[in-house]
From TrEMBL:
UniProt-recorded name of the protein: D-3-phosphoglycerate dehydrogenase
Source species of the chain: Xenopus laevis (African clawed frog)
Keywords: Acetylation, Amino-acid biosynthesis, NAD, Oxidoreductase, Phosphoprotein, Serine biosynthesis
UniProt xrefs under Pfam families: 2-Hacid_dh, 2-Hacid_dh_C, PGDH_inter
Domain called D-isomer specific 2-hydroxyacid dehydrogenase catalytic: residue spans: 9-318
Length: 509
């Protein structure tokens, strides 16, 4: 079955009702809502589903992914996917998608709320009042006007934070290793190298994913370079700020306060930070608004419906090459790529080394990435592993095959060429049907439909013997194509004994 053949979906965390409703009404998908499943319950049930939708509570481990023999998709209704074993999912050919925009506004607003709360010690003052006190002098604050906030990570959330804090006439600077400085300048953020960020900031907020490169991004060394009394905010992922270093900075006075919505361990058993008087601690509320939950649930459901309907693939974190692959226009080309890869592997069973995918024609200008994946799937068809467009390239490398692409523009024919092991195949579409045009220098008089069961010879087909063999096997001749060097017959069903036909190859596409 294809990656878009998703019939049953399990929702294992609490989501807005709109999520299941969209899947059922727009996608025709059977949905089971079972929030709060234990790990063992999930393991026993996941094998019956094609898709799994989670928030942050469900841990989608390698064990879960392996048990989900039907799984084609894991959808995370939110931004981060650190509760999903993405590497294992990719190996198993499972798409992992998130909703990168769903909770951006809610997370940004919470960050801004923590900045304001830290500047005026609002939660501490409210707690003091609740205790019957009137400590006006104790809670002397500071204005945000004219202060500098450093934003580490300038994607969707970082950008929204910057725009909002500029309304307080704060100076917004930042760092992002991916987004160009000219882009962030358009929304008022001047970028600096990290080593130049620390000393300028009165406030620092982090909005990066948790990666090896970002773990402990704000540490003892960073705090030592900061202004005395700098305040830090983390509404991204626990661990980006080194918690032990933060505690030391708070105790020494180098850090004047922290707003933490996330922790390395959640809920945190170590309470030193949570109970520190200069820390505002929250139980991971970044996406906890009705609007964000509705938006994330609706977005993940709509993304899955678009995939099922072959309209688009949006939000995939482990299949970037496939973003343009899911549409009515591209689907026949993927079928052609898989068929030609399969044919090349049949002609050269022990193929290894380089395979070249060459596209021509303007409409295939940006098709190289997903056509490489499609050809790879064809090359590896018959492999015992679950091979598809998600993991094909991964398995190709392990078998010694390297598939690369090139494109020739111009007004010539729209074609796909696949070359390897000294054999060149040329194909195209005829009324959206995948067809073979050439094998090497052998050009067929009319396109060969790449569908069903084919028998291929070098030279002419032994027509009389073919008729006899097909009759005995209960199969029928559906088409016969000849070229100056090869012949191809299309038959209604495979034939078990081809010995009477001499040297030939049978392939089912």
């Amino acid at each position: 079955m294809s990656l878009s053949d998703i019939r049953r979906v399990l929702i294992s965390d609490s989501l807005a009702p709109a999520c299941a409703q969209i899947l059922r009404t727009q996608g025709g998908i059977e949905v089971t809502e079972s929030p709060g499943l234990t790990h063992q319950q999930l393991l026993s049930q996941i094998q019956d589903y094609d898709g799994l939708i989670v928030r942050s509570a469900t841990k989608v481990t390698a064990e879960v992914l392996t048990a989900g023999s039907r799984l084609k998709l894991v959808g995370r209704a939110g931004t981060g996917v650190d509760n999903v074993d993405v590497e294992c999912a990719t190996k198993n050919g499972i798409i992992v998608m998130n909703t990168p925009t769903g909770n951006s506004i809610s997370a940004a607003e919470l960050t801004c709320g923590l900045v304001l709360s830290l500047s005026r010690q609002i939660p501490q003052a409210a707690e003091s009042m609740r205790a019957g006190k009137w400590d006006r002098k104790k809670f002397m604050g500071s204005e945000l006007y004219g202060k500098t906030i450093g934003i580490l990570g300038l994607g969707r959330i970082g950008k929204e934070v910057a725009i909002r804090m500029q309304s307080f006439q704060m100076r917004t600077i930042g760092y992002d290793p991916i987004i160009p400085a000219e882009v962030t300048a358009q929304f008022g953020v001047q970028q600096f190298p990290l080593e130049e960020i620390w000393e300028q900031c009165d406030y620092i907020t982090v909005h990066t994913p948790l990666l090896p490169s970002t773990t402990g991004l704000i540490n003892d060394a960073a705090f030592s370079k900061c202004k005395q009394g700098v305040k830090v905010i983390n509404c991204a992922r626990g661990g980006i700020i080194d918690e032990a270093a933060l505690l030391r900075a708070l105790q020494s006075g180098q850090c004047g306060g922290a707003g933490l919505d996330v922790f390395i361990e959640e809920p945190p058993r170590e309470r030193a930070l949570v109970e520190h008087p200069l820390v505002i601690s929250l139980p991971h509320l970044g996406a906890s608004t009705e609007e964000a939950q509705n938006r994330c649930g609706e977005e993940i459901a709509q993304q899955i419906v678009d995939l099922v309907k072959d309209r688009a693939l949006v939000g995939a974190v482990n299949a970037p090459a496939l973003f343009k692959a899911f549409s009515p226009e591209t689907k026949p080309w993927i079928q052609l790529g898989e068929a030609m890869g399969n044919l090349l592997q049949t002609l050269l069973p022990s193929i290894n080394g380089n395979v070249q995918v060459t596209t021509s024609g303007e409409i295939l200008k940006d098709a190289g990435s997903f056509l490489c994946s499609a050809v790879t799937v064809g090359l590896l068809r018959g492999n015992k592993e679950k091979i598809n467009l998600v993991n094909g390239s991964l398995f190709a490398k392990s078998t010694g095959i390297q598939v690369s692409s090139q494109h020739f523009s111009g007004a010539g024919e729209i074609r796909l060429e696949v070359s390897g092991g000294g054999i060149q195949l040329v194909g195209s579409l005829s009324d959206s049907i995948p067809c073979l045009l050439k094998i090497g220098t052998s050009e067929f008089r009319s396109p060969v439909t790449l569908h069903g069961t084919l028998i291929l010879w070098e030279g002419s087909a032994p027509l009389l013997k073919l008729t006899e063999v097909l009759s005995e096997a209960g199969s029928q001749l559906e088409m016969l194509h000849v070229s100056n060097g090869h012949s191809v017959a299309g038959i209604s069903s495979p034939v078990s004994d081809l010995s009477l036909l001499g040297p030939c190859i049978q392939i089912t596409l």
